[in-house]
Amino acid sequence: MGDQGLQLEELAKEWTPTEETILKRRSVRIYKKEQVPEFMVKRILEAGRFAPSAGNCQPWKFIVLRDPEVIKGVTDTTVGFCKLAKSLVDYRVPGKGWRLPLAKLSIKLKPGDMHPTPFGAVSYIADGKLGLWHDSPTVILVFKDVRGISNPDLDCGIAAQNMVLAAHSMGLGTCLVGFVKLAFQYTSKWKKYFGISYPYKFATSLSVGWPVGNPDGLVKRTTHPVDWYEDGTSKTIY
Ligand SMILES: Cc1cc2nc3c(=O)[nH]c(=O)nc-3n(C[C@H](O)[C@H](O)[C@H](O)COP(=O)(O)O)c2cc1C
What we know:
Blueprint: H1 2-12, H2 17-24, H3 38-49, E1 60-65, H4 68-89, H5 100-109, H6 116-126, E2 138-145, H7 152-169, E3 173-176, H8 181-185, H9 189-194, E4 200-209, E5 226-230, E6 233-237
Antiparallel strand pairs: 1-2, 2-4, 3-4, 5-6
The structure holds flavin mononucleotide.
């Protein structure tokens, strides 16, 4: 792991259990079929509810999915949109030049979605090479209340991360899953099913389940420089 690894090993001696959970948490993409006990999911939701939010608005609504047919239904809708996106705007396929103008327009309108990383994943999901919620037995959908002051997306992200960390501290695995927004953005089917209307909009979701093996652990991370101002001078730390 190089220098960063050595530094982490040194720091690890001082870690609190909270730091250990934060640093060792990894996204889990293979789950056991066994369901997560209800009381554990309730504790995870509680961790979400206790997240800080601007003005204490708590601009979120959580929905728990544990019916395999419903999870599959939302998955199928999302996969359908991934297939459509792949067939219309996959600008990377050689010999499909006619897609370029549409791809360029999409890049202008949705630059984040068309970035090669998520777009590559859209293609994998369309081809069934990457699962949506990775067959987790429990899914938590997070909807934002758009009336929340300041930035409800940020509040929902913090609540979701609280839930993720609570789950990992209990030995469970999670993966934040953003692609499912396709099932809520471009069709009203699932909004109707879950009774979602103004002021709620999809924010994010997480898969929750018992991990196969133990994927949690330290990995090498890119260290972005941090500028530090103190005593009238500045330094950069890594
Ligand atoms: C907002 C957000 C959306 C994400 N969406 C997905 C997703 O749709 N599918 C997936 O497999 N992983 C998704 N991830 C997980 C990231 O790929 C993962 O956090 C990242 O690669 C770092 O790996 P780690 O979580 O194991 O540290 C998402 C993460 C975040 C924060």
